[in-house]
Amino acid sequence: MASQSARRDFALLWTGQSISLFGDQFMVLALPLLAVTVLHTSVAQAALLPFALYLPFLLFGLPAGAFVDRVRRRSMMIGCDLVQTVAFLVIGVLALTGVLTFPLLLGLVLLAGAATVFFQVACTSYPPTLFSDPQELHKHNTQLYLSDSVSKTLGPMAGGPVIAFLGVVGAVLANAVSFAVSVLAVVLIRHREPRPDPTPRARGWLVRDVREGLAFVFANPILEPVILCGMTYTIFLGMVEAILVLYCKDVLGFGPVGIGIVAGAAAFGFPIGNLISVRLVAWQGTARTCVIGTVTSVTGLIAMPLFGGLGSAVGLVVASVVHCIGEGAFGPVSLTLRQTHTPAALLGRVNSVQRFLVWGMLPVGSLLASFSIANWGLEAAMWIGAVGTALCVPVLVRRGIRAGLRRDADRSDLTRV
């Protein structure tokens, strides 16, 4: 069992992360509005801001792990939160004083996105230093995923009233305050990790370290199918997410309210999936939980164009919620598997490989969506994206996961599958 101090330290990490994640969701609405209403940019320019926020996952996703494995992860989290605090504070102050320009805004958003990459790799690598028991580790990973899910569900809903009350610049400054709170929370953590072994940084050390992380993932019979499953799934999910709003508008004829309900209601499935993840692992085991979560999510996604073709808005919403339940159940298990199957000295690099291969596929999915719409139309593109996610199931059910499905004795053991 974990000590009381470990639980206290995790509570601080979880609280700070929850507040900053919630504040970050304001930016989904605030940044494009800031660009259009304050800087008077075009809509096309404003659309570059989300791209700038996620581009660092492709640029720095792999190197981030090599750096994280060479420093104390708590220190890395504090530094990254400070960078994000300053970035959004500068955006707000410059906007208030009337000297903010769009290139400067784009650069500061890129900086904040880069800090997000390093923070997330460090944050997902930190809990194993607090908890050695796999079941307790999984329970606390589920809390982190639950915070992310709830913030994605409630954050955009709260963003509108916050912007209405504080204005777009005030919302940006509120996000800076949320990161400052996260800095304070992590600073108050008492646990101190041992300093990583001071491996000399010989010429080419970064490339060598990145290669070690990639080699470990592709050689591991558990992590390789889980991460490649996520990669395959995300390519086609990216298609569905890029198409959904236009599909609802142009194919189904929904108005803004209907589109908002379809897009917003889906997120309620994530916390449900997170909450059942722990019980599902205890009941069915790790490998089976991964497969159940994957199949559930794929089933929901395929049902979306099916119900859309029938003109059923209720069916479309239910299918979307089902897909998020499956994804919410799979996520915490995949994180715990990375933490329990990876040596501490490699964990940052393994988490960065996952971020690069999975999150980096979202822009690929958007490109495929654009190509499919241009050649076959919106409805066909929606079907391609939804059915394409099913390819992740055979990618998952291989090697160590397939062997884990055959064993029953390890149902509650997250150290093995």
Q: Would you write up a description of this structure?
A:
Helices cover 81% and strands 0% of the residues. The protein is mainly α and 417 residues long. It folds into two domains: 4-189, MFS general substrate transporter like domains (Growth Hormone, Chain: A, Up-down Bundle); 219-405, Up-down Bundle (Growth Hormone, Chain: A).
Structure summarized in a few sentences:
With 417 residues, the protein is mostly helical. Helix content is 81%, strand content 0%.
Features of the shown structure:
about 425 residues; Growth Hormone, Chain: A; 17 helices; about 80% helix
Low-confidence stretches: none
β-strand percent reads under 5%
Overall pLDDT level: 83
- CATH architectural label of the largest domain: Up-down Bundle
Give me the count of strands.
0
Biggest sheet character: none
**For this structure, what is the CATH class of the largest domain?**
Mainly Alpha
CATH superfamily of the largest domain: MFS general substrate transporter like domains
The CATH topology label of the largest domain is Growth Hormone, Chain: A
| CA gyration radius, whole angstroms | 21 Å
Helix content: over 70%
**Helix/strand order, N-terminal first:** HHHHHHHHHHHHHHHHH
Distance between the termini: 22 Å
Query: Which overall shape is indicated by the principal axes computed on the Cα atoms?
Result: globular
Helical/strand content category: mainly alpha
Number of helices: 17
